[in-house]
Amino acid sequence: MLTPEELDKLHTCLLNLLKAVDKICRDHNLTYYVSDGTMLGAVRHKGFIPWDDDADIFMPRPDYNKFIAHAQEWLPSYYGLADWTVDVNFPYFFARVYDKRTTYLLKRNFDFLSGVPIDIFPLDGISNDCLKRKFHIFRYKLNIKKLYFSNVQYNGLRKYLLTNGLFKLLSRKRIHRRIDKLVQKYDYETSPLICNYFACRKSAYVRCFYPHNWFGEPIQVQFEDATLMGIPGYDQYLTLTYHDYMKIPEPKDRRQAHYKILDLDKSYLEVK
Predict the structure, then answer these.
(1) pTM of the model
(2) Contacts made by residues 176-184, CB under 8 angstroms, sequence distance 24+
(3) Are the C-beta atoms of residues 81 and 72 closer than 8 Å to each other?
(4) If you placed Cys at 199, which of 25, 136, 208, 225 could pair as Cys (CB 3.0 to 4.6 Å)?
């Protein structure tokens, strides 16, 4: 567990990443919204949730694709982009911007190391037809499981049979391409419903579908000493995601750390 001083240092690192992405989006006329616990923190705390250790952003698919295509030239040299188009061994279908001067090892048993990141989730269109939507999400979740098993590291006999056997037959690039095609099947601009596919991994995946009119022109929100862009329909979004979102959860109900190893003073390049 981080000390209060270490948590403050982590929040500073995350805030600087958010500011860098915000500047890029303003400079290049891209839309984004702080999301998940970051949007909740902006509304409830005017900044980070005091015990939170990550930061999240939504980007509409057209803006997300432009950002991914140019992020490495737009970002400062000490920041990097983690995305499957940059590194096929990145175990997620969304993107991360990370600080190269730090070290961050995922909690899940993936063989992927980077600096402290913020997550950038694309928002995509989704069918308004319930049956089509269910079948579409079923196909998506099937491919996400393949991606997970092609990346996870096992020990002992399971490692030999799975990591070095069956799942070596799974091409990560092929799986990524299939997922990328699936999530972009429905046009973002014309779909009445939009989807955060990452949230579909949960059993209550109805929470990953949002009416398009909750989004649109971002609103400005105070976040620590910065002004960031937030979701216009934040009340509906936060109610769907967290229910009574202004209520402070009990300590036992607060989310656990996302990382296995964190070093704010040493670059992951040195650790490698």
Answers:
(1) 0.92
(2) 176/84, 176/88, 176/93, 176/147, 178/143, 179/93, 179/140, 179/143, 179/144, 179/147, 180/84, 180/93, 182/136, 182/139, 182/140, 182/143, 183/93, 183/122, 183/124, 183/140, 184/61, 184/124
(3) yes
(4) 208
> What is d(CA 52, CA 249) in angstroms, rounded to the nearest whole number?
12
User: Are residues 38 and 56 in contact, defined by beta-carbon separation less than 8 angstroms?
Assistant: yes
Residues 264, 102 contacting (CB under 8 angstroms): yes
pLDDT digits (tens, 9 = 90+) for 124-175: 999 999 999 999 999 999 999 888 888 877 666 655 555 555 555 668 889 9
In angstroms, the first-to-last Cα distance of the chain is 23
